[in-house]
Amino acid sequence: MGEVNNKGRGEFELIGWIKEQVESCSRMPSGIGDDCAIDQLPSDQQLLTSNDLLIEDIHFNRAWTSMFDLGRKSVAVNLSDIAAMGGKPRSLYLGLGRSQQLEETELKDFIRGFLYEARQHDVVLAGGDTCGSPGPLMISVTVQGLVPTGKAVMRQGSGCGDALYVSGTLGDSALALHLLRAGQMPPVPLAQRFHTPSARIDLGRLVGEQELATAMLDVSDGLLADLNHLLVASGVGAELILSALPLSEAFRSALGQNPSLIDLALAGGEDYELLFSSARHDLEQMALPAPGVVKVGHIRAGTGINIRQDNGDIYHCRQRGFDHFAAS
Ligand code: ADP
Ligand code: MG
C-alpha cells in the first residue's frame, strides 16, 4: 500500500520470526501467515472472546518490568478473563504498536515471555498485527477460549444467602506496586505476583464444570470494585468479613508495620484471583485446584458492600474512589 502502509521491512521480518517461534514451541498449527486464522470449533462448546489493551506508562512501566515478564503478564491477564467464565483458553491474537524506542531484542524478549506463558496453558498465538508507533508501546491482546455450551459462569446470578469466595491471596500485587512507587524493592513473593501473575484456569474450569458458582469474575480492579460489578449485575448487596480476607505472609508482615495497607487488599487491584458467589457453604473444605478458595462473606438483599470488623462495626476503606460502595 506504499506510503499509507506503515509496516516496514523490519515488521515483516519480525512477523516471520514470531511465526517460527510459535511453530517451534506449539503442538497446535499456527494461524500466522494468511489473512485470517481458521479454527474448527467443537459443536458442543461456546466460544469466549476477550480483549485487553496495555499501554506503556499507563498499564506498565518499563523501568520496573522486564520485557519477558511483560510478555508473560500480557497473556496471564487475558487468560484470567477466560478463567473467570469457567472456560479453557485456546488461542491468542497479539496487536503490537511498536514504539521507536524499543530495540528489536527487547521486542523479541517480550514475544518469548508471551509464548512462554501461552505454552504453560497450551494456548497458541494464532495471529495479530504489527505496526510502528510514534508514541508509547501498545499491546492489544485478544484471547479466545471454549466452554461447554450453557456452562459459562457470568457476573449475574448471585442470590441472597450465597457465600462469597476468593481464590489465593489479595493485595500482594498492589503492595508490590506501592513499594516500587516509593522507590523500594518489594520482597520476591510480592514482586512475583505483580510481574508474573497466574490465571486461575484450573480452578475456574472446575467451578464452571461442577456448577459451584452462581456468579463469578476475576479480581483485576480490586476486590471492592469487582465485587461491586457482580452485585450490580445480580441486583444484590454483600457483607464482607474484614478478618476473613486471604492475605499472604509477606502481606501480613507489611500490614504489621502499617495497618492501613489493608486497603490494598480491598481496593488495590491486579490480583487476578477469582471471586464467586455460591449456594454451597462448604467449598473451603473441598479439594479444589490450587490456590483454593476462602469464604470472605455472603450475599444479602439490597445494594452496596458492608465491610464488617470482628466487633461488628463497619470498616470504611480509605482507598480513593471506593468508599461510596459502602451501603448507607
Ligand atoms: P495483513 O496485511 O493481511 O493484515 P499482516 O502482514 O498484518 O497481514 O500479517 C500477516 C500475518 O501475520 C497474519 O496472519 C497475522 O495474523 C500475523 N501477524 C502479524 N502481526 C502479528 C503479531 N504481532 N503476532 C502474531 N501474528 C501476527
Ligand atoms: Mg495486518
CATH class of the largest domain: Alpha Beta
Q: Helix coverage percent of residues?
A: 25-40%
Q: Given the helix and strand composition, which structural class is it?
A: alpha+beta
Main beta sheet, described? Answer: 6 strands, mixed
Count all strands and give the number: 10
Our Rg estimate from Cα atoms comes to: 21 Å
Mean pLDDT: 92
Would you identify the CATH H-level superfamily of the largest domain?
PurM-like C-terminal domain
Number of domains: 2
N-C termini distance: 60 Å
Bound molecules: adenosine-5'-diphosphate, magnesium ion
CATH architecture of the largest domain: Alpha-Beta Complex
Strand order of the biggest β-sheet: 6-8-5-9-7-10
CATH topology of the largest domain: Phosphoribosyl-aminoimidazole Synthetase, Chain A, domain 2
* Shape verdict: globular
- String of helices and strands: HEHEHEEEHHHEHEHHEEE
InterPro entries: PurM-like_C_dom, PurM-like_C_sf, PurM-like_N, PurM-like_N_sf, ThiL-like
Binding site for Mg(2+) 5: 221
Binding site for Mg(2+) 3: 35, 81, 218
Catalytic activity: thiamine phosphate + ATP = thiamine diphosphate + ADP
